[in-house]
Amino acid sequence: MALEGVILDIDGTLVISNDVHANSWVEAFAAYDLEVPFETVRPLMGMGGDQLIPKVVPELNGEEGTGKAIAKLRKELLFDKYIPQITAANGSRNLILKMQKSGLHLVVASSASSEELEIMLKIAQVDDLLSEVTTSDDAEASKPAPDIVEAALKKGQMTPEKVVMLGDSPYDIESAGKAGVAVIGLRCGGFSDEQLSGAIAIYNDPEDLLQHYDSSILGTNA
């Protein structure tokens, strides 16, 4: 069966950002006298802040009080300090161009805010290529809840069975799975093959997928 389209995660998938995001969270928690080790936060990258905060500090949430303040500071730190450390994943732009040439409908599904996403798309050098996006504004709950994937399906007017998602984390796989969408996993987000075991295929990065494009599920549209 030919694919209709591809849902795209950005952080850890098209940009190398997971370590940077983890460091921004560690610093934000520390500002409120909460010592949260990098090793605790890093495995949670790919999960939205609304899910991450209570996971790390169960008595907090991102909607009120200290949890909300931490989420706000984390975002400020990202913009003021950490963004220059983020780079494009190898092959991001060329893979997007290849998928578009193949006639695939591309929709971004990110747990990031619209402001963050705008910057990440520029870093990935695909901001001129991807116009259909969904962000945290389009979902009540972030990954691993299915909301953002379902929002991307709705925006693209696509059916789950004819779509794959490109992602880097187990939370992408869980989120997409709940929405009935299969996932191609990329190792460039820093997760192990075991953690990505729910994916239908795993590649090193966008460039690796591009090199194997014709033999991948994406090649059904080539």
From TrEMBL:
GO terms, biological process: DNA repair
GO cellular component: cytosol
Keywords assigned by UniProt, alphabetized: Hydrolase
GO molecular function annotations of the record: phosphoglycolate phosphatase activity
UniProt cross-references to SUPFAM superfamilies, sorted A to Z: HAD-like
NCBIfam families: HAD-SF-IA-v1, HAD-SF-IA-v3
This protein's name: HAD family hydrolase
Organism: Nostoc edaphicum CCNP1411
